[in-house]
Amino acid sequence: MNIVCLDLEGVLVPEIWIAFAKESGIAELSKTTRDEPDYDKLMKWRIDVLKEHGLGIDEIKKVISKIDPMPGAREFLDELRKITQVIIISDTFEQFAMPLMAKLGYPTIFCNSLVIDESGMITDFKMRVENSKLSSVKALQSVGFSTIASGDSYNDLGMIRASKAGFLFKSTDRIKNENPDLKAFETYDDLLYAIKENL
After folding, report:
1. The pLDDT of residue 136 is above 90
2. Distances in Å between the alpha carbon of 170 and those of 74, 183, 185?
3. pLDDT for residue 34
4. Residue 30 is inside which H or E element, if any?
5. Catalytic hit among 7, 91, 152, 156
6. At 185, is the secondary structure helix, strand, or coil?
7. SS3 state of residue 115
8. Where are the alpha helices (DSSP H) in the chain?
9. 9 is catalytic
10. Which domains occur in the chain, in start order?
11. Does the active-site annotation cover 7?
């Protein structure tokens, strides 16, 4: 039995932190896992920047409420779910993801959680498990699933390479050049076709 594992940000929805960086005017917050492979380091730095500017979960949620799925993402997901099981595996947080899941038709998502104090400030984050994307794919394989994975960032490479088929989607030139053996796609039609070929 097959199961498709997709990244969320950059694949189905725009990058939340980039949108927040634009809205808040704090350009440095536009750094993502496309730029920094060490997610733990990236999140600790983000929390420090938010604290420095006095910004918390409410300000981020206001920005998220304005974010829509990327054009064609809902249709792609709907079509894919007609033919196979799909799980979104993301390093984002449930507090960020839930409003976006409504716009995508409530697909299954594995993600993490934020620690938020009484004043609404983000003080920490809790990852479900170390190397959550790769660990999730390996766990699915351990219970009999063959995985097909797609993502755009450094933190997606583990699950892509561990799967029977894996693809980069809307990735950066840097990541594509560093991983020339991975097929890279820019349109949902091409990605859907590649997934279907491997089911």
Report:
1. yes
2. 16, 11, 6
3. 85
4. none
5. 7
6. strand
7. strand
8. 16-24, 39-53, 57-64, 73-83, 94-103, 132-142, 157-162, 173-178, 188-197
9. yes
10. 2-13+69-197 (3.40.50.1000), 17-64 (3.90.1470.10)
11. yes
